[in-house]
Every structure is written in structure tokens, then in C-alpha cells.
Design goal:
By secondary structure, this protein is an alpha/beta fold. Among the domains are: 101 residues, Alpha-helical ferredoxin (Fumarate Reductase Iron-sulfur Protein, Chain B, domain 2, Orthogonal Bundle), CATH 1.10.1060.10; 115 residues, Rossmann fold. Helices cover 53% and strands 8% of the residues. Strands 1-3-2-4-5 form a five-stranded mixed β-sheet. Helix 1 packs antiparallel against helix 6. The longest helix has 19 residues. The structure holds iron/sulfur cluster (SF4) (2 copies). The site of one iron/sulfur cluster (SF4) has 14 residues, from helix 2, helix 3 and helix 5.
Length: 424
């Protein structure tokens, strides 16, 4: 892109942000639903306040200074505001657009550059590097050093140290086959989106999804050319990189005639849903797909007379709008008592890399979740987003709350006979 066309392109983006922001009538109905506003009670940390700040900056009335950036950065992009806005202001597009614009102009600290370029670009979104990093983490976990780190002061010194100390026990990443054939009567062909973090930190959920889909009569295609969904880069204000992953995934899944592309993580699912309609129309959350799937009458699900608290990830509620699906899926388990976790309307604070870059707010929101988990008295905590799961598990360990956090599909798969250690 030439300098002139780049400038024109940026001007077009700014104009579209300004147009969308102008649709906000400042009614304030979104304010009580905004987690950062509820914590700070500052208008500048509310959706309405942030939109006003964006408008002021685009009109050159507000400078691009630390104060402005602080309010923009503190937004979780949870989109709870968008979900309740009577004027349907597309807040998610506004915050992503403004973050993209300011990213080109701001100076980042060394630490921030390390998280963005080292961790996200160099490891998380590179499958080979992620496999290597996962191996290194497993050695660290098996050596007992992680257990020592959890008890040390080191784990309390920074958000990344705390996250590393409380990372769930990683399992070896499987060598994925390209097709897992359906068992019995074939009902359809689906693609499975692996995700970056999920394939390293929660391959059990991916394998459980294949297990259940195969049992119900769906063949599962795992294309090896798929990449990151792009959500991390959208959140970091790097839309061009996100669009690169979009092109890669559309190409990767174009080889087979698929009835659906299944995502097991709400964050990835929301990003895939923003792809062009011919791809986005096929994207389904695993619980959403399974709760409407056929073949259940021929399956045996063992009873589980226990209480399951369901955590609803923000993007599942506010973007995918399929937050009822995990309940429908889990209620297929005889004897299980399935209830919402109190305070599901509020983000847990994970929000992509937010828990690393905004540890104070992320910690305050996590503390609310821990209170709710304690009060639930549940044996299982079901969540459908890998980022939330990692953040919640870290909070559970720190606060000494004993409950198993897992994906809804993993729990039902276990009751159907799935044993993660036997199908590698
Ligand atoms: S609810 Fe919508 S229109 Fe009202 S202040 Fe919030 S964003 Fe603006
Ligand atoms: S996206 Fe979430 S944190 Fe950001 S303004 Fe909206 S409700 Fe508040």
C-alpha cells in the first residue's frame, strides 16, 4: 500500500468510527452493565464516556496522551454494553477500530512489546513454537518447580508470574489426524477449529469434542493449515495481522464440504463469526452444535448426581448469543444439577491478554467470581472459553477453592465413556 492510499484508508476507518460513535445518544442505559464502570464509578471508564473520548480524539479536541489511553486500555472489550444498547451501537467495532488507530501512533514500553511481539506473535500464534513452549512448561511442572513457585513470593510479584505459577497441568499435544470418522450412522461432516491457546492448554476439550461428535455420527476434519482466529491481534489493535489469519483459515477450511466449523472457545468463535458470511454462517460453538445435534437417543450417558455451576463467557453471551447451549448440553447428564454461576453478567477479567496487561482490574473482577464460586457449593465449574478457564483456575488455586473447572463438552464426554489418557 502506498503512503497516499494508506492515508486514505486510515481516513476512511476514522470516518466510519466517527459515524458509528455518532449513533450513541448518550442515554446511559449501558453504564450499569459495564464492569469497569461498576468498579471505578468513573464516567470515563464507562461505554458512554469512552465513546465521548473517542469522538473527542477523532475531532482533535483530546490529545493522544496517557490519560486517554488509560481509559481505552481499561476496556475489556466484553461487549456487555453492546448487548443492552437500545440504539444497537456497535461498540465492539468502535473499540477495535480506535485501538487499531492509536496503535500506529503510541509508544509501547519494553514489557508491552515483549508480550505483544514475543509472546503473542512469536509463540502463541505459531503452532510449532507453541508445541515447544508447551513441552518446556510440562518439564517445569513435572520437576516440581511450579509447585514451589506457587508457594513463593515470586508468584505474587506480577501478573505473568502469577499466570505461570498457576497454569493448569499441561498434557502432551497430540499429533492431530486430518479426519476422525463418524461411528455408526453418518449424520454429517464438520471441521474442528483448534485455536492457539486451547490446543496447548486444553487439548482434552478438543479430544472430548471429537469423541462426542464421532459417537453422534459426525466425522470431524482437523485441517493442519488452520491458524489463530485473529482475536488476540484484534484486541491488541493490529487488524491487519488478524485479517491475515482470517485469510489463512478460510483457505484451510475450504478443502472439504463441511456442514459446520466447530469452535470450542467462545473467544475464537466470536472472532470466526466476524469473518465473511459464507464462512461465518458455518461457525458453531460446540455446545450449540451438540445441543441441536441428532443421535443422542442411541447414546448412553452415565448419571452424575452432582452440582455443576456454569460460567458464561462474555463473548458467548454478548456476541454469539448461545449462552443457553451449555445448560442444554449438561442437562442431558442424568442426575446433574446445572445452575448459572451468580454474577454471570460480569466479565471474569481474562479478556484475551487483558489479565496480563491490566492485572489490577482483572484481579478485582476475578475476586468477584471466586466469591460466587465459593457460594455455589458446586463440584464442577463449566466454562466454554479457554482464556476464562485459565484465569479462573489461577484464581481458584490462589484462593484455595476446591472445584474442578472444565469445558461442558469434557464433562458430558466423560459421562459417555471418554478417557483422555486412552485415546492419544
Ligand atoms: S446504551 Fe448505547 S446509546 Fe445509550 S449511552 Fe450506551 S452506547 Fe450510547
Ligand atoms: S466493552 Fe465491556 S468494559 Fe468495555 S465499555 Fe463495554 S461493557 Fe465496559
Amino acid at each position: 500500500m502506498t503512503v497516499t492510499s494508506q492515508t486514505t484508508f486510515q481516513a476512511t476507518i476514522s470516518a466510519s468510527i466517527a459515524d458509528e460513535a455518532a449513533r450513541c445518544v448518550a442515554c446511559g442505559l449501558c453504564l450499569p452493565h459495564c464492569p469497569t464502570y461498576r468498579k471505578t464509578l468513573s464516567e470515563a471508564d464507562s461505554p458512554r464516556g469512552r465513546i465521548a473520548l473517542m469522538q473527542g480524539w477523532l475531532a482533535r479536541r483530546i490529545p493522544l496522551n496517557e490519560r486517554f489511553l488509560g481509559h481505552i486500555d481499561l476496556c475489556l472489550a466484553c461487549r456487555a454494553c453492546e448487548n443492552v444498547c437500545p440504539n444497537n451501537v456497535a461498540y465492539g467495532s468502535l473499540i477495535a477500530g480506535v485501538r487499531g488507530e492509536v496503535e500506529r501512533l503510541r509508544r509501547r514500553s519494553l514489557w508491552q512489546r515483549l508480550v505483544r511481539n514475543g509472546l503473542v506473535d512469536g509463540v502463541i500464534t505459531k503452532p510449532a513454537m507453541l508445541r515447544l513452549a508447551g513441552g518446556a512448561v510440562r518439564i517445569w511442572q513435572m520437576s516440581g518447580l511450579q509447585a514451589l513457585a506457587r508457594k513463593s513470593k515470586w508468584a505474587k510479584q506480577s501478573a505473568p508470574a502469577r499466570a505461570a505459577a498457576h497454569l493448569p497441568q499441561l498434557k502432551p499435544q497430540p499429533a492431530w489426524r486430518t479426519v476422525y470418522p463418524a461411528e455408526g450412522l453418518v449424520r454429517g461432516e464438520v471441521g474442528l477449529f483448534l485455536g492457539c491457546v486451547a490446543r496447548a492448554a486444553d487439548s482434552e476439550t478438543l479430544r472430548a469434542s471429537i469423541f462426542v461428535l464421532n459417537r453422534l455420527g459426525y466425522s470431524v476434519h482437523v485441517t493442519p493449515r488452520q491458524g489463530c482466529c485473529g482475536a488476540l491481534h484484534t484486541g491488541l489493535g493490529e487488524p491487519e495481522k488478524a485479517r491475515g489469519f482470517e485469510r489463512q483459515n478460510i483457505d484451510a477450511f475450504s478443502g472439504a464440504e463441511l456442514d459446520a466449523v466447530i469452535s470450542t472457545s467462545a473467544g475464537c468463535g466470536a472472532a470466526l463469526k466476524a469473518y465473511p458470511p459464507n464462512f461465518a454462517g458455518k461457525v458453531k460453538d460446540i455446545s450449540e452444535f451438540l445441543s441441536a445435534a441428532q443421535g443422542w437417543e442411541a447414546t448412553r450417558i452415565a448419571p452424575l448426581p452432582e452440582k455443576v455451576a456454569v460460567h458464561e463467557p462474555c463473548l458467548m453471551r454478548n456476541v454469539l448469543h448461545c449462552q443457553d447451549a451449555p445448560y442444554a448440553l449438561l442437562r442431558r447428564i442424568p442426575g446433574a444439577t446445572v445452575e448459572p454461576l451468580a454474577g454471570n453478567g460480569q466479565c471474569c477479567g481474562a479478556a484475551g491478554t487483558y489479565f496480563l496487561t491490566q492485572p489490577d482490574m482483572a484481579g478485582a473482577l476475578l475476586a468477584d467470581k471466586m466469591e460466587a464460586v465459593r457460594a455455589s457449593g458446586a463440584k464442577y465449574l463449566a466454562t466454554s472459553n479457554i482464556g476464562c478457564a485459565i484465569h479462573l483456575v489461577s484464581g481458584l488455586r490462589e484462593s484455595g477453592v476446591v472445584i474442578e473447572a472444565l469445558h461442558p463438552v469434557t464433562l458430558i464426554a466423560r459421562q459417555m465413556g471418554f478417557d483422555d489418557d486412552k485415546i492419544r
